[in-house]
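User: These chains co-purify. Model them together.
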Amino acid sequence: MDLNDIRARLETFMHALYGADDSAHRSSEWILSDRAEGFDSVVVLRLVLAIEREFGIVIRDDEINPEAFGGLHNLSRLIERKLAFSSDSA
Amino acid sequence: MLRFWSVPRCLAQRTTPEWLHAWAQVLVECNSYLAPLRSRRSLQPLFQVLGSKFTERRVIEIAKRYCLIRKWRRYLLETWPAWVKHGQWFEFEGRENLDAALEQGKGALLLSPHSFGFGRFVAPVLAQDGYRCHRVGLGWQGDDLSERWGKDDYKRWQHIHYRWESWKNIEALKTMKSALERNEVVHVSLRGLSHGEPAFEIPFWYKRYFLDARLLRVIEFFQAPVVPCFSRLDERGKVIVVLSGTIAPCALRIAAEFGALYREWLERYPELARIRKRVYQEGQDW
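Assistant: Joint model of the two components:
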């Protein structure tokens, strides 16, 4: 799966997860910000669990930060790296 | 090291709660005579909170009864039982409420008020009775109690290291979720705050008091039955742990039902609430 595929899949299920009006997901480029209204651990946890389920990967605590989760591009890169690592180790 | 601890361990195993409690009270009494100024200073937060309700003499009596002068309660009454089998030191009331919650197959969230009573022992003690338990807390790694309670008979319990920053506690939340999915017990303590959302305020006779909305929302997300868990020390020196009836995992219901119980406990045993120190230190913010 290349970066564009990951990004497209991510966009689709992010939309389903949060809906278009959710303050934590206002545009396709900006996903999560601790400055957003309603932001808390549960918002992050829901997203992490959904990504893990969708892509069959495990995201570690030290990989969860505002940089990685603050934009669709960075998040797609993280997933790409995790997928590559899991296929290498398989 | 093992030899050094073997003497106090041997003594601890032969000590009854009544004897230890009496001994701790003697030490507290000695402490207040030998270091009156320091003892007096350590009582200031208690005077601040209880002073409007009780006379000074009564406050000192309460402090001595619960060994609240300096840290004697922690040194003796909380550390000592960690060396022995819990049988004679802890009594559970309402354990059937925990069993009923576990029968639902969604795990059970034991909910205690933060810094109140003797809640930190509940997970290790339940673990000794065969429950799979997890205690969620801040900064317990490397704690001497955690080390002693984490070995031998107590290895069926696990400490989950929780941090307040939303980005940094996801691993802890995932561990809690997995434990509940395996139908295990997760013990969480709920902080009280000086500011908060009106829906989560509980009536407290001293100051306005709010339950932590963030943690309530986390609990709501897990959808596991909530079992309120309070503990106190009785006149024999035993720790009595009271497990109340299950509350549905809805933040507003928890705030209402757990809040009512918490108010009752605060009214009956205000001396067991270590929040008095924060009330004192943070002054008008409370």
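Residues 31 and 79 of chain A are 15 Å apart (CA to CA).
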